[in-house]
Amino acid sequence: MASHDAHAHHPKQQHHFYSMEQQLEASILGMWVFLVTEVMFFGGLFMAYIVYRHMYPLAWAESSHELNVYMGGGNTVVLICSSLTMALAVRAAQIGSRKGQIVNLILTILLGSTFLVVKYFEYKAKFEHGLVPGPHFDPHELLANGTLAPIHLPQGSEIFFSLYFIMTGIHALHMVVGIALMLIILAMAWKGKFGPDYYNPVEISGLYWHFVDIVWIFLFPLLYLLGAHFSL
Amino acid sequence: MVMSETIKEARHSYLDAPYGLKSWLLTRDHKRIAMLYLISITIFFMLGGLFAAGIRLELLTPKGDIWSADLYNKMFSMHGVIMVFFFLVPSIPATLGNFFVPIMIGTKDLAFPRINLLSWYLYVIGGVIALIVLAMGGIDTGWTFYTPYSSFASNTNVTLAIVGVFVAGFSSILTGFNFIVTVHRMRAPGMTWFRLPLFVWAQYATSLVMILGTPVVAITLTLVAAERTLHLGIFDPKIGGDPVLFQHLFWFYSHPAVYIMILPGMGVISELVAAMSRKQIFGYGFVAASSLAIAILGFLVWGHHLFVSSQSIYAGMVFSIITMLVAVPSAVKTFNWAATMYKGAVSWESPTFWVVGFMGLFLIGGLTGLYLAAMGMDIALHDTYFVVAHFHYIMVGGAIMAFMGGLHFWWPKMTGRMYNEGLAKAAAVLVFVGFNFTFFPQFILGYLGMPRRYYAYPDEFQVWNVLSSAGASVLGIGYMLVFTYMMYSLFRGEPAPANPWGAKGLEWTTSSPPPTFNFDEDPIVTEPAYDYKPAGSEVIVG
Amino acid sequence: MSGHAPITPVRTLVTIFLTLLVFTAVTVFAAMRDFGALNTPVALLIAVTKASLVITFFMAVRYNTPLTKVVVVSGFLWLLILFGLGLNDYLTRAWIGVPGR
Question: Would you tell me which residues 125-144 of chain A have a C-beta closer than 8 angstroms to some C-beta of chain C?
Fold first, then answer.
């Protein structure tokens, strides 16, 4: 792997790039091209959502009512906080603050994990209320006195819940990948690998993390807030 | 002296240094990855061809007497899945594209070499999964996986097949993303967009389609798998699902996918036409722009697969008109290639045979597409052999001929060996003749009303089917001939000079085969592409 | 090589963060009122605004090259093609009849 460059270059600069700047630009461009594929991936689900909402507006409104707005809304706040801490982590790498990176990465991971924990409880409630599509789809509602009563949901509701589980499920899978990424970045930051001249992995992982947040920003109102039908 | 020079160069080429299986399996060299892909896709091409042979064998007789109906369904399904996802989509981009895009733009490698290697491993994993599906009996849904049969009723290994296709699709996304960043960010000094070889433009346009389309089929097939395994159904009519929605989502990718399969071939043809005519491509700017136009317009026409699906008539009209429009950029290319050859110094070497074959067959394929684009005609022709003939003219008569042409043209560069020119010309003729005998009768069969995906047919269709099967044998022999003399050339072929065709382009300025880092000195480009002028104008290197 | 990419000040990041929280509250409260046909457009407008803030400031796209910005926009544009031409079918089914039906 003889280097053809006459000048010495940064140890992290790969041989086919002529500068660190080119490498960073290429990485950012590359990550955004990948995020475009993610936009299209989720986009297919949103297309299905739009078509079926058009077909079954009543089912959409009533099924949305069965979702827990507090958990959904709370999770939205959690993710927005995690985006802040992520942006702060990137900034910390840019200014060379090891402590700043570590603190913010840990916070991001904790917030992301909180999201997943809340999600677990949400799903659990759906199971208990018979809202999981398939042979056991048997919608029930939790009454004020704590008992479950069967309810009738309009035609199309099972599709709503299929989409709910698939969209939030795939989103949650992306969160898991994001957390795993952050753990790796945290380990590298701990070892002091990032600084003002090299922080590419933090930057591009951050882009991924923010994107997952953006997906949730759309999922929350579209799934949880339909029909002007609830009061706080 | 040529012998010793090329042997000396071979010692330093990417093929030799470094040595050993591990150095190949862990390589980051785009050229080695291209060769790894070449080996893998050849295996799948042969497998897909085996299924084609099974189909044509059955169709020799009107009755379904060789295979059971179920087995026949599995044969055409596996033929489609393998040929589309495991051969055609990766073919030119992952082999010739991987090998030549960096060299043609004058750089050392793609932007992300490790991701390039990952894409090959993903392709292999997807392929292994497909083989496992095959061993477990294959799928019978057709390569199009239409619901609710695929999500509900089929008792074959649909879910596993979907996983294999998903993984292979992800591999193609990684290839596309690599090319986009590379072409934008890694061109050599002086290599402006309008000095780029048209092959690079074509790969770039193809990559755009890969990025924007593949994820949609990925999620769509994921939904089918979710419906099968988790009962999270959205296509099940019993709960209100719409099977036509599947078709919309599936074809949103699968139509642009056909442009993934043909655009690189068109790029190859542009290169070969210029080189073989020793002439600047007529209307370079138009040809470059037409690649982008095809990529973009190709996303707007998918509904022409849904004309008879209960899609709205109005939407059908919109899709029909745009489909006819998308033929225009392809026609632009065809006219420009012809104009390039006109009054060019055309040399009739083996690549030229493949080029001319391509142009005739692609023309027929493209024109018959217009028949199908007309809604009224499509009502009669949908799901008949007319459709089968149309897309095979493009995919085999077009894409595969172009692939063969490119393989022959660049074989000396990639392997450092020359193949037998006489056999190559013979193979091109055999393939052309065999192809036409295989697929032209299928236009007639479709017009006469023979449905596709049927293993039995009325007696009066037999003569055309026999012709078709006979042609298929000749076609198969032609391809096997290519494989044979190419393999022979690897061991006994004459060492190739740096520029056996006397062609213009950065790849011909380096040795055959190239050194690991492509160029001995970083190129600086000062001339337009295809700068065929009298002696004295060489691309300056270094 | 340091300082070649602009660094977003903490103040900006926190301001955007608070803005996002405000918009989240707005979207919840907006959902409790009925704007008739405007319900969905309002919700989408808020979501798009929030997403744009994340993209521009948290993802620092405002500091990226024009090419990167084009990539960002084209991704969402392509979704519109899927939605638009797809809905073009579903919304027009009754427009042109088929003889005999």
Answer: none
Of A25, A43, A162, which has the smallest distance from its Cβ to B233's Cβ? A162
- The Cα–Cα gap between B341 and B281 comes to 9
What B452-455 contacts at long range (C-beta under 8 Å, 24+ apart), as own/partner pairs, is B452/B383, B452/B384, B452/B385, B452/B387, B452/B388, B453/B73, B453/B76, B453/B142, B453/B383, B455/B58, B455/B59, B455/B64, B455/B67, B455/B69, B455/B72
Contact A33 B232 (CB under 8 A): no
pLDDT for A54-81, tens place per residue?
999 999 999 999 999 999 999 999 999 9
Is B542 inside any structural domain?
A: no
For residue B10, what pLDDT is reported? 45
A40 touching C, CB under 8 A? yes
Q: Is residue B15 part of a domain?
A: yes
Which residues on B lie below 8 Å from A16 (Cβ)? 107-111, 113, 186
This prediction has a pTM of: 0.94
C89 at the B interface (CB within 8 A)? yes
Taking a C-beta distance cutoff of 8 angstroms, is the pair B158, B145 a contact? Answer: yes
What CATH architecture is A20-136+148-226? Up-down Bundle (1.20)
pLDDT of residue A2: 40
- In angstroms, the separation between the Cα of residue A155 and the nearest Cα of chain B is 7
Where in the sequence is the domain holding B100, given as residue range(s)? 2-509
B79: nearest Cα among B431, B448, B360, B455:
B455
| Chain C hits for B312, Cβ within 8 Å | 88-96
Domain count, chain B: 1
Structure tokens given for B352: 């030229």
pLDDT < 70 regions, chain A:
1-8, 227-232
Q: Would you say residue B338 lies in a domain?
A: yes
B526 domain-assigned: no
Answer whether residue C100 shows pLDDT above 80.
no
- Asked if C39 and A44 come within 8 Å (Cβ–Cβ), the reply is no
| Chain C (54-73) residues lying within 8 Å, Cβ to Cβ, of chain B | 67
- The reported pLDDT for the residue numbered A231 is 44
Residues B104-112, mean pLDDT to the nearest whole number: 94
Contacts for B66 with CB less than 8 Å, ≥ 6 apart: B57, B58
Would the pLDDT of B427 be above 90? yes
Partners of B140 in the β-ladder: none
- Residues B382-387 have a mean pLDDT of 97
Mean pLDDT value across residues B166-188: 96
* A91 with C90: Cβ contact below 8 A: no
Kindly state whether C89 is in contact with chain A, defined as any CB-CB distance less than 8 angstroms: no
Q: Is B314's CB within 8 Å of C95's CB?
A: yes
Examine the pLDDT at B321 and tell me if it is beyond 60: yes
For B456, half-sphere exposure in the C-beta direction (CA atoms, 13 angstrom radius) is 9
- Greater confidence (B20 vs B405) lies with B405
Is C88 near chain B, with CB under 8 Å?
yes
